[in-house]
User: What shape does this take?
Amino acid sequence: MKLVLYRFLLWADYTFSLIKAPVITFAVVVAVAFIHVFSLSANTCLAAEVNLPHLNVIYMAQAGYQPEHFREMTREFTRRYGIEVVLNIVRYDEEYMKIVTSATSPVATYDVVLVDLIWAAEFAKKKYVSPLDRGFVEKIRQDIPEIILDAFEYDGRIWAMPFLANIHFLFYNDDMLNGAGFSGPPETIEEMEAQMRALKKSGIVKYPMIASWNQKEGLICEYVWMVGAYGGELFDSAGEPVFHRGPGVTALETMVRWVQDGLVNPLSLTADELLVKDVFISGKAAFAPNWTFLNALMNDLTVSQVAGKARIGLLPVADSVRSATGRLSSSVSGFQGLAVMSNSSRKQEAWQYIEFITSPDMQGRFLQEVPVWVSLHASPEAKEKDPDIDVKLKQLEWLHHRPKLVRYQEISAIMQKFIHAALEGTMSPQEALDIAADRARRVH
Amino acid sequence: MLKRKSPNSEDMQVRNAGSPVTRQVRQGFRAIVWSTFVLSIITFYAISNLTSALHQINTFDISAIQLSGEISKKIYQTTSNVYLAIAGGSKIDRPQDQLNEVKMLLASLYQLLMGHPDERVREILLTLDYIEEASVEYTDVLVGMQDEEDPERLYFLLRALSGKGEWLISRSEHMQLRIWEQMGPRLANTERLAALLKAGVAVAFAFAFVFGLLVSRRIASTLIEVSGRIREAAAATHRESERSVAISDEMQTSSRRTQAALQAVLKAFHGLVETSGVSSEASQRIAARMETGADAADMLADRTRVTADASDKTRSTISSLGAKLTLANLVLRETISLVHSSVNVATEARGHGDELGEQMDRVNLVLQSITNIADQTELIALDARITAARSGEAGKDFGRVAQQVGDLAQMSSTAADEVKELISEIKASTLGVARSLGLSIERIQSLLYQARLVDEVFGEIKGSFDEILCLMDEVKNAANKGAAEAELVQTSMAEILESARQVAEQAGELAEEMFEVANGAQAAVEASETVASGIVSQAELAKEQSRLAQQVTEEIAKLA
Assistant: This one.
């Protein structure tokens, strides 16, 4: 080995003396230029294939602003700035996969993505999206509630511009309640159960409640507000699971009891939010916990059979929690924000698009959803266009976020499986939650 | 590149000085071989990395994604088949075997993943476990549906199956996604590596081409250069040899002359050695004298300094004395003025004494009158007493009064006499005092005269003192100058002494060196004799070299 090294050194020395420094410099310059040209041509080839002359945006068709509203906002942007935007409307279930696939490609498929708050930690940790400028955050902080911004915070930065202040409400059929002798929606879980039993007993409705308790993310959302109603959270501040103790167990026991006693429609175990909407607006349920989007649809005479009869109200809390803490309600956040992909080649235009589409001006024109801007909440236009704005703002005060975990997707899947197993009756609530907590710890 | 102090620096120096052609050619070819070797290693390393990355993508990532996709597809197909069967009113055929294919795919995937048991795969393996569990639950629902007759219950079971299927598919897709998450960056890296390799190979070929060209040109030019140099060297050697013969002859002559000249130089050196010895001794003597002179100058400087100090002290003493004399003069003048005022007082006293004498004379006259009166009164009193005695008893009282008056008159007369005596005494004293005062005044005036004389003497003394002080200052300045000049003399003497010493030492050293030179000259004379004989033999060798160079030139001319 030493001999080889010695020979090599002799060769190098000879080569140097032979070629001399100017020639070596020239050769290095040529080599660098060569490499640069080659890598440039490789990148150009790649970019030519994917760097389309417009912005690519991915959006979901489920809760939140409906696709036609979103398209209208986008058209307005194109008119204003002359930048073409290609909208990719997908199902919520597909969105995560598409974003991750795009993020791990050499060049982003999408420039702007709709980020659910539960993905914020993972996307931030893996640097799939770019954080918001600190100065910009300080500016918007003055007009966006802390609870909304906090949903997209990770490691001291905000990773998506809040766009949808989506929250869970209790939609109820006022006619049915009146028919059962109740003057208004329930304020506590116990009162809600009593009303459901009365409704069922009186035969007004076979299954008083419909909920999105299928083995998907919707089930976790429902479980979060139920646990909150009993005064608990799913994970502690250190990220350790605590849902298998106290409020978490009581909440699941209540849900199981409601299924077993026929208070909740058995379809709930296979229902997503859209099916819940369909059942409720067809007048086959007195109660339907669901996202904001149902508020507009239930009063739409073209699709709803309960228009004028259905109301939006606050989700209840357990009597013990209400009396002990004064909490009036418990809900779950479903905030979504718009973010720029880290590997986007059109970041500047992408930020321009996000700033425009999330602006108070644009949100003020589309008040089907709760605006993220405080200044819009109290505006006369908002009150005129949305008579239920006060209830929505009230519900905003009693929110629970789903846990901000980098491995949330895996942990959520585990919880979905075991909570659903308990609802199906194949496991007791305690057993199901214990296993789920154990497995969540292994993933975490 | 190698540093100059590296182990092969000698080789380098030899090469730089002009190494043999065979070595240069060998080095050139060796450089080409080594360049090719190094390029081959780099290329091999890059290709092997690229191949390894591609192999991993191909055998692990793509296979895993394919298997995951297959699992999703099979579950979807199974659920669709169940829907179709229920819709067609037929039974599900062997429900417990419906997911057998999925189970086989899961086993294959598990086997594949176990071959890469790193941290990234751990999460995928966990998901695989959950898929396996859920597929059992899926099968259980299917089995439950087999004998279900209630359409509503069947509907719910079908939805449940669909839900389980969706969850399974979502997990499979999630698994695919996680594999893709790993594959994406790996693909990008591979792409970058391939691009770099392409560029690297191009650069390597360019380098090899340019380098080969340079080496071959260098070898060719070296051969031409070396051949030319040999020819030039042979011709030069021939010329130099001829010159060498001529020079050798000249040198032989010069050598003899040099020998003679050296003999003369040797003699001169001997003379110089003697002269320098004498010079050294003289220098030593001068140095001794200089030392004595320096000591004297030193003493002179000391004495002059003492004189200056004494002058300084004397001056201060005289100044002090002058001040005291000035003070005495002032006291004297004060005394003279006091004496003047005493003389005035005494003169005035003498005037008063004279006035007192006159007044005494006038008192004496009065006293004479009183004495006369007293005598007359006594006579009267005697008459009265006689009269009273005459009067008898009646004149007794009168007689007693006359007696008393007579006594009084007697007493007055006595007193007047006594006063008279006293006045005479006072007068005599006053006259004495007046005389004494007059005498004193005379003496004082004489004293004043003498004091004035003393005052004048004081004035003269003070003037003399000032002159003395001026003289003392001049003496001191002269002494100080003298001291400085003495010091200068001393320093100069010390320097001269040091120079003299150095001259003496150098003269000694010179003498020794000259002695050595003389010895060297002696050796040179002897050497020049040897050189002369060497030059003779060198001239013979140069003739031989010239003959050989002529022969080499002829041979090279034949080669060219």
In short: Chain A touches chain B through 53 residues (CB under 8 Å).
